Amino acid sequence: MNEIIEVPIERIVDRIFFIRGKKVMFDKDLAELYGVETRTLNQAVKRNIQRFPADFMFKLNDQEKRIWQQIYLRSQIVILDPGKHIKHAPYAFTEQGIAMLSSVLKSEMAIDVNIQIIRTFTKLREIMSTNSELREKIEKMEKEYGHNFEVIFKAIKKLLAEPKEEIATIKKKIGFN
């Protein structure tokens, strides 16, 4: 029996971004996790393009690509020569697109990692659901007891504030902690 490949969940979560109102992963990150070249992953997708409609995968537009280059490449400490740019915009895969990749990439490692990625997306969805339920309970308590606990409710609301759903949310901290 083959050994199952384990990828730390943090490695997966750190590569999930929020673009166009969807949680996505980029082709470059997925290829690295699957242990293949980005070119190989994209070729497999192009050979099976009918399996990847627009809600499964999309290419970044020019504005998104510029932001991606600034953030992603800077975080990778890659310096491009002046006037040089990434030729092709990266593909962004939604959760459904990532699930579809398992039917396109046949290696053991790709299958194992794909299962872990789908489990990670599921856990994130559960966490978001729990936060939503908690928010509703707090709002109900605030209506009943708000005048007594105004300061506490403000602090809790800040903690539960959902991230703004903009491309800018793909920015990551750069540097040392």
Task: Please tell me about this protein's structure.
The protein has 177 residues and is of the alpha+beta class. It has one domain (9-128, 164-170). Helices cover 54% and strands 8% of the residues. It has a four-stranded antiparallel sheet. Strand 1 and strand 2 form a beta hairpin. Helix 5 (95-104) packs antiparallel against helix 6. The chain is elongated.
Q: What helical percentage do the residues reach?
A: 40-55%
Average pLDDT, rounded to a whole number, is 76
The portion of residues forming beta strands comes to: 5-15%
Order of strands across the biggest sheet?
Answer: 1-2-4-3
- The general outline is elongated
- Strand runs, count: 4
Low-pLDDT stretches: 165-170
Radius of gyration: 20 Å
**What count of structural domains?**
1
Order of helices and strands: HEEHHEHEHHH
Number of helical segments with 4 or more residues: 7
The helix/strand class is alpha+beta
Largest beta-sheet characterization: 4 strands, antiparallel
Termini Cα gap: 41 Å
Q: How would you summarize what this structure contains?
A:
This protein has about 180 residues and is α+β, with helices and mostly antiparallel strands. The chain has seven helices and four strands. The N and C termini lie far apart (about 40 Å).
